[in-house]
Amino acid sequence: MELAIVDTCFLINWAKFRQKNDIFNIFSKLIIPSIIYTEVRSESARSFIARLMAEKRILLAPRISQVDILALKIYDLINSHPSLPSIDPPEAYALALAKYLEKPLLTDNASPRLAVEVINEVKGVRVYDSLMLLAKLYKGNLFRRKVKEFIEDTHIFFSEKRLREYGL
Amino acid sequence: MDSEELKYFKKVVEETGLTINWKLFEKRIKELEEELEKAREFRRRMADWKYIESRPEPLKTALKLLVETGDLKKVSYLYSIPLDTLNEERIKARIPIVVV
């Protein structure tokens, strides 16, 4: 099993999912860039992260200047296009770190997924959103049930187009 | 996106030194714009407007902006509301985040 970089929103949402720990059936550990950790303030999300840290399932990644440079470029590029969902500095850093470490990035923001398709410098980085992860974790009817439970627990929905891609 | 905006975007791309597959970018951006518009309509339809109107300022305006944009982080930043606090309010206001 490999490591994955995780974005704040993704982590906050998965902290609400009844089977949040299943994420570790795919990834041995999650890497949180230290600049992302400061965004998490609520007791429930912080205690979830603290527990995972105690279990050594979460690693805090330090700032790396080389990653910062790429992150700033990604941030500038994505945020200068009016139609692209915005990306904040921690998210841009997470994408650049995923490129640097050659590890997947977990995020529900559409911009990083589009970025790895069209920006040559980050091409090939694997970006998984919640639906992709649920599809990796569960198969058949169980997948269908878990998507429903995920929506109930988090109030995160998936577009009809995305659901169709998975036969839902 | 009008021609001035595109010119500005191309300038930024040039400044960053990053390179883009423009043909694929134009195709994807068109698809994404359609999906984001559907998501906006869905948020407007699903939101509990009574709850939103009952909230004090600046939370009320923040939640309305969240319905329009779906951008939790940007709204959190603009109104200085902690991300996960805003997320809790979003759930109470039944504003869906739509993964496109």
Kindly describe this structure.
- The complex is a heterodimer of chains A (168) and B (100).
- Chain A contains 9 helices and 6 strands.
- With 168 residues, chain A is α/β, with parallel strands linked by helices.
- Chain A has a 5-stranded parallel beta sheet with strand order 3-2-1-4-5.
- In chain A, helix 4 (65-79) packs across helix 5 (89-101).
- The model of chain A has no long low-confidence stretch (mean pLDDT 90).
- Chain B has 100 residues and is mainly alpha-helical.
- Helices cover 73% and strands 3% of the residues of chain B.
- Chain B has helices at 3-16, 22-46, 49-54, 59-69, 72-78, 83-92; one strand spanning 97-99.
- In chain B, 25% of the residues are buried.
- The interface between A and B is large, with 43 and 45 residues.
Which helices and strands occur, and which strands form pairs?
The complex is a heterodimer of chains A (168) and B (100).
Chain A: E1 2-6, H1 8-14, E2 27-33, H2 34-37, H3 43-54, E3 58-61, H4 65-79, H5 89-101, E4 105-106, H6 110-118, E5 127-128, H7 130-137, H8 140-154, E6 156-158, H9 160-165
Chain B: H1 3-16, H2 22-46, H3 49-54, H4 59-69, H5 72-78, H6 83-92, E1 97-99
The number of E-state strands of chain B comes to 1
Mean pLDDT of chain A: 90
* Class computed from helices, strands and strand pairing of chain B: mainly alpha
Estimated share of beta-strand residues of chain A: 5-15%
The major beta sheet of chain A can be summarized as:
5 strands, parallel
